[in-house]
């Protein structure tokens, strides 16, 4: 809007009126119908920093209204002249002072009778607005704090009726705030805790501040443990009730109960454990020992407490004992074996698990669990000895469970079958070895074992490389006390060489029998024709020819005699073989 020439309104002619307008504490100006400023008093100059000479004649909305309020103030200015009821007489707006800062003001406007001028007053409420905003922010911050914390903030009147309670109540009990305000707090307290809480309430009203634990009931009847801390609330020196904080301690209570049960369980375990449980101070003196010490070492707990644990070590001078002492001071020790002295003088082997306990600055005690492994150690030594023997016997030894799954396979079995122990442990024996000979299958052996509990016989199995192996086998079932089969043990010896030798001897005997039969047949078939030939030679007239025939017959007889001698030798060999059970 273009600026027009200044049009200064005439100042009030009445000296009294003029004195009032110029000296009032309210900023006042007169605005023409077209929006030009006709007059501004001294308070306006003072409040907003403008010189009147700079304002008079200028349009009001060109420089004074804040951007956010300009259009609204222009609209009110025109409405007031065409429809006064549509424009408010008083409203809040923002003006810019001479420095450009926005100022909050209450604007009051009135039309001058008989003209289109407006008398406008401005009351600066910037400080009030700032105070209100600060208060709003403070209340919002407080509300956010109160509504956001887990604790329940509450106030009650002297009669126990709830006058305020924070929204945290809804998370705790599932009751809405609107349902609870105005109700007596006793309605939400566990009946068993109400008498004690009522007395604490009365003591707090009397001025005694004390925390109090009790149980509250949720909407669905669930119990929550809470603790309250309250103080009396005064207004104008008059007691109006209590203000307090309610904290949910259900999880703490549950943790305390879990701890109590854990301690009870620990106490029971400690008292009934077969292992020795012991604690000692930084000087190695026993501060606690479980009853198991009586069974393991022969001492009662009362005899042991107060003594030094090293007093019970069988060979305290040994280097490993000194190492144990150092390790116990520096950190945890697991599975350490040491020989202790029984009350009767016997040696007892304990397996120790030790962990340090900080007792005081620069000093650590320890707690330990000792398990008697004397019998276990003795059994392990026997088992190790048995395992040594098993690996050094010449016979193959195989153990299985009741389903013929291999559990042991000694070195001789490795040599006999070709498989290493780690290749066969856990595999089925029936699938691993098999036989093509009727009656020599593992299934046949299994049937005999199940029926009679043992088996003895020669079996033909296959080596890993596919070659047949003949084995003289003895197998027995392993049974438990009730008679049930728990597994099988098989002992086998390689008789492949013997079987091969027997096969050779058998073939030789058969050949001898065949030779003897052939000798006998051949001798019978030759002797008779020779006799006929010899008789004919005797009847011949040609002596020379007859003599030649007789010489041939003599030579043939000599050969027949050799056949007879071979038959006799073969018979002698046969009889020898029979006598020596080689046939």
UniProtKB/TrEMBL annotation:
Gene3D superfamilies from the UniProt entry: PAS domain (3.30.450.20)
SUPFAM superfamilies from the UniProt entry: PYP-like sensor domain (PAS domain)
PAC domain boundaries: 210-261, 334-385, 455-507
One Pfam short name: PAS
InterPro entries on file: Biofilm_reg_signaling (IPR052155), HisK_dim/P_dom (IPR003661), PAC (IPR001610), PAS (IPR000014), PAS-assoc_C (IPR000700), PAS-like_dom_sf (IPR035965), PAS_fold (IPR013767)
A single MF term (Gene Ontology): phosphorelay sensor kinase activity
Protein name, entry field: Histidine kinase
């Amino acid at each position: 809007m273009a600026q027009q020439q200044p049009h200064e309104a005439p100042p009030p002619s009445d000296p009294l009126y003029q004195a009032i307008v110029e000296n009032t504490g309210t900023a006042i100006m007169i605005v023409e119908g077209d929006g030009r400023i006709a007059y501004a008093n001294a308070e306006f100059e003072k409040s907003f920093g403008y010189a009147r000479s700079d304002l008079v004649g200028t349009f009001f909305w060109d420089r004074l209204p804040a951007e956010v309020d300009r259009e609204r103030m222009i609209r009110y200015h025109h409405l007031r002249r065409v429809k006064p009821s549509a424009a408010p007489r008083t409203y809040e707006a923002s003006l810019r002072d001479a420095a450009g800062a926005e100022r909050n003001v209450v604007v009051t406007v009135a039309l001058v009778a008989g003209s289109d001028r407006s008398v406008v007053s401005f009351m600066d409420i910037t400080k009030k607005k700032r105070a209100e905003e600060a208060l709003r922010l403070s209340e919002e911050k407080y509300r956010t704090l109160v509504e956001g914390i887990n604790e329940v903030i509450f106030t009650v009147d002297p009669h126990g009726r709830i006058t305020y309670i924070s929204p945290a109540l809804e998370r705790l009990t599932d009751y809405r705030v609107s349902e609870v305000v105005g109700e007596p707090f006793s309605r939400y307290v566990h009946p068993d805790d109400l008498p004690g809480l009522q007395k604490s309430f009365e003591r707090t009203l009397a001025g005694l501040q004390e925390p109090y634990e009790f149980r509250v009931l949720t909407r669905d009847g669930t119990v929550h443990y809470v603790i309250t801390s309250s103080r009396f609330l005064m207004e104008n020196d008059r007691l109006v009730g209590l203000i307090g904080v309610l904290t949910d301690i259900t999880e703490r209570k549950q943790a305390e109960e879990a701890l109590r049960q854990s301690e009870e369980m620990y106490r029971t375990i400690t008292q009934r454990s077969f292992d020795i449980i012991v604690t000692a101070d930084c000087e190695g003196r026993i501060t606690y020992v479980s009853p198991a010490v009586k069974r393991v070492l022969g001492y009662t707990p009362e005899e042991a407490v107060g003594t030094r644990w090293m007093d019970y070590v069988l060979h305290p001078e040994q280097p490993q004992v000194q190492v144990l002492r150092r390790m116990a001071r520096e950190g945890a020790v697991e599975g350490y074996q040491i020989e202790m002295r029984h009350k009767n003088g016997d040696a007892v082997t304990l397996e120790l698990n030790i962990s340090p306990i900080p007792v005081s600055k620069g000093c650590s005690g320890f707690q330990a669990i000792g398990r008697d492994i004397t019998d276990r150690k003795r059994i392990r030594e026997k088992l190790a000895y048995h395992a040594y023997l098993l690996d050094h016997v010449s016979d193959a030894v195989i153990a299985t469970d009741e389903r013929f799954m291999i559990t042991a396979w000694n070195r001789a079995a490795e040599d006999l079958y070709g498989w290493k122990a780690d290749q066969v442990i856990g595999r089925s024996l029936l699938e691993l070895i098999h036989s093509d000979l009727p009656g020599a299958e593992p299934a046949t052996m299994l049937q005999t074992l199940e029926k009679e509990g043992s088996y003895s016989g020669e079996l033909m199995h296959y080596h890993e490389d596919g070659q047949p192996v003949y084995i003289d086998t003895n197998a027995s079932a392993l049974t438990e006390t009730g008679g049930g089969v728990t597994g099988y043990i098989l002992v086998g010896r390689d008789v492949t060489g013997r079987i091969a030798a027997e096969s050779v001897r058998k073939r030789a005997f058969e050949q001898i029998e065949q030779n003897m039969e052939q000798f006998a047949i051949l001798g019978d078939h030759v002797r008779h024709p020779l006799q006929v030939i010899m008789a004919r030679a005797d009847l011949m007239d040609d002596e020379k020819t007859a003599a030649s025939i007789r010489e041939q017959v003599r030579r043939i007889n000599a050969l027949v005699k050799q056949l007879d001698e071979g038959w006799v030798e073969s018979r002698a060999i046969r009889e020898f073989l029979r006598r020596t059970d080689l046939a």
